[in-house]
Amino acid sequence: MQVKPYLRQFPDETGHFGRFGGADVPPEIARQCERIAEAYLTIGNSYDFVSQLREIRRHFQGRPTPVYYAKRLTDKIGGGRIYLKREDLNHTGAHKLNHCMGEALLASYLGKKKLIAETGAGQHGVALATAAAYFGMDCEIHMGTVDIAKQHPNVVRMEILGAKVVPVTRGQATLKEAVDSAFEAWVADPENSLYAIGSVVGPHPFPMMVRDFQSVVGFEAKEQFQQMMGVLPDNIVACVGGGSNAAGIFAPFVEDPCTLYAVEPLGRGAEPGDNAASLAYGHEGDIHGFHTMVLTDDDGEPSAVYSIASGLDYPGVGPEHAYLFDTGRLTPAGADDRQAVHAFYALSRLEGIIPALESAHAVAYAMELAQQKPHESILVNLSGRGDKDVDFVYDNYPPQQWA
Q1: In sequence order, which ranges of 194-351 are alpha helices (DSSP H)?
Q2: Average pLDDT over residues 367-392
Q3: How many domains does the chain have?
Q4: Quick one: residue 335, left, alpha or beta (phi over 0 = left, psi -120 to 50 = alpha)?
Q5: At how many degrees (to 10) do helices 27-42 and 206-229 cross?
Q6: Which of 66, 101, 293, 346 is 20 to 30 A (C-alpha) from 22?
Q7: Residue among 118, 264, 320, 368 flagged as catalytic
Q8: 178-190: per-residue pLDDT in tens?
Q9: What is the CATH number for 28?
């Protein structure tokens, strides 16, 4: 019996990756999720849909983005060779537009009038606001007030693009609470709106859809790296909060002899509330309608989390990452705040590339890995550029201290 390729095996029909994933949601939400899943599996695989999405990627997003050899960074470290998949060059400055254009295109086929989403660092919010403008839809972005203050440039961009930014003040007022608020807004009007989730999290079919839309990153990188070097990369590194950029670059390599590193935010330390490293410190549990690895408090509820990078401070991880970790296919890794800032400045000064703080976590671990594996290649998903972070970094980690 011929075994199906990995991407056709997972998730299964119920949205599970092994024991992770699924859709544990109220009946009305379950019905809406089933409709979205059916639409995605039919419309999303049609010739018209695929052709239109490819045209959008080429002529609007500017894909493919290049793979770039970071020679000066590599020479400075003196170890393994570091390559960057330049998603910072994707339109809007991050990988997020890859799935936002796909979700918005699906919404247009379904006759939806409004897109609703959460955002942490603001990159998903900007990308969805861009997609809404492209398709002529209303857009509502829910964002914690802590992140609104921290990521002001992206808030401005969303509003310029025509989106309504909804401040979320409950709880920690960061990403988890923004997800809660956005879900509630979608539940209030599911017939006319689509919840365009910002990562590979949530109930089925969202982790599958986002992974599939983001896999363009990995398929491009695989072909580009083989054209450059004649072989596959030895190691692939990506930052992981919920994990959309990592899912995208990992997906085409799961069955290949490459080591996959999921770099989590170690923040200020190992104590609860000082990091957002769900694979390293979490336990199996449920959050936002799916089963995964979750950081929990003494009552078993999702705990407070922290990261210098607003896009990584989520107390859970995508169910596919949990599955790949559980089966040993994915290797957990981490970088703390100071390592991320050091990488932020190193890449800026050595390569002329200012990375997002989220991506800086991946770069930081790649720099460490290069010293451990001096004869191997390391492909980093540089998932976003750092325009949104420059004021925060400059004010809190002045360049004079990072010479």
Answers
A1: 206-229, 244-250, 278-281, 319-326, 337-351
A2: 96
A3: 2
A4: beta
A5: 40
A6: 101
A7: 118
A8: 988 998 999 899 9
A9: 3.40.50.1100
Active site residue 108: no
Is 96 an active-site residue? yes
**20 φ/ψ sector (left φ>0, alpha ψ -120 to 50, else beta):** beta
Which pLDDT tens digit goes with each residue over 254-289?
999 999 999 999 999 999 999 999 999 999 999 999
Same domain, 325 and 226: yes
User: Would you say residue 403 has pLDDT above 70?
Assistant: no
Q: Which two tokens stand for residue 19?
A: 């024991």
57: its two tokens: 């990627």
Q: What is the pLDDT of residues 282-315, one digit of tens each?
A: 999 999 999 999 999 988 889 999 999 999 999 9
- Which of 174, 207, 240 represents a domain boundary (last residue)? 207
> Rounded CA gap, 153 and 388, in Å?
6
DSSP 59: I
Annotated catalytic residue, options 85, 87, 96, 368: 96
What range does the domain containing 175 cover?
15-58+96-207
| Dihedral sign (CA 66, 211, 286, 39) | positive
Q: C-alpha distances in angstroms, 351 versus 43, 65, 82, 355? A: 42, 17, 12, 10
DSSP state of 10: S
Closest to 104 in 3D by CA, of 118, 94, 119, 115: 115
Q: What is the pLDDT of residues 166-180, one digit of tens each?
A: 999 998 988 889 988
Tell me: pLDDT of 46 over 80.
yes
Do 233 and 123 share a structural domain? no
Give the rounded percent of residues in the chain with a pLDDT score beyond 70.
Answer: 99
pTM of the model: 0.96
- Burial bucket for residue 135 (CB in 10 Å: 0-12, 13-18, 19+): middle
402 has pLDDT over 80: no
Q: For this structure, is 383 an active site residue?
A: yes
